[in-house]
Amino acid sequence: MSASTFGLKNEPQFGDLDAPDPGVNPTQAAAYAALVGNRKIGTTAQRDALTGKDVWEGLLFGDITTGIDYRRTGGAWLPVGGDTGWINVTFTAISGGTTWQNAAAGEEAQYRRLNNVVYLRGRIALGSAGTAFTLPAGFRPGQLQRVMVRDGASTNFTGLNVNVGGAVVVGTGVQPNLSNIYPFPADN
Q: Which residues, listed in sequence order, are joined to residue 12 by a DSSP beta bridge?
């Protein structure tokens, strides 16, 4: 007998009352088990294309494009261990249509996750207090990270917070050096 319905993970389901034979189609069941399990392997494009019953919370994906393993958590793909390499931040727009920016060439604001520890580096500028950028899921601390950082261009200091939602908030208009932030565990 062939499956009459499919479950949340697209697994074949067989009804007890299906006629004429209540036996399971072993070929169909084996094909499904071989196809999915709880781990898939493929390219970044294949991972990003997973939708519906082909993706679920807790699914592991070995990405052969990046060489990083990911786990589906909270509807997002989060890296599991390993090294993401340095990733450039996406700055937040502020009033007047301008955005935060890098303070100087060679000091680009970046983040990295190495074995579940997040590192920041670079120096940012624009001169207005507020959220400079937001770290994506998988690069956020489990509790507020609050530090005083030195301005990379002078002896001024400013408060800088990395919130559990990922917002990196600068307290004043100096050009904070992100490399002064202590690494923190990536909890979400």
A: 6
Tokens 């959220």: give the residue: 131
CA separation for the pair 24, 26 (Å, rounded): 6
Global pTM reads 0.62
Distance from C-alpha of 123 to C-alpha of 181, rounded to nearest angstrom: 11
CA distances from 11 to 20, 38, 41, 57 (A): 22, 12, 18, 15
Distance (Å, rounded) from C-alpha 79 to C-alpha 56?
16
For 87-185, give the CATH class: mainly beta
HEC readout, 26-47:
HHHHHHHHHHCCCEEEECHHHH
- Give the span between the Cα atoms of 108 and 152, in whole angstroms: 12
Strands 39-42 and 60-63: parallel
Q: Where in the chain is the domain with CATH 2.60.40.1830?
A: 87-185
Q: How confident is the model at residue 59 (pLDDT cuts 50, 70, 90)?
A: very high
pLDDT surpassing 60 at residue 89: yes
Closest CA to 53 of 5, 3, 7: 7
Question: Which residue is listed with tokens 């084996």?
Answer: 30
- Radius of gyration, CA atoms only, the chain: 23
Q: Is the pLDDT of residue 45 over 60?
A: yes
Strand, coil or helix: 67: coil
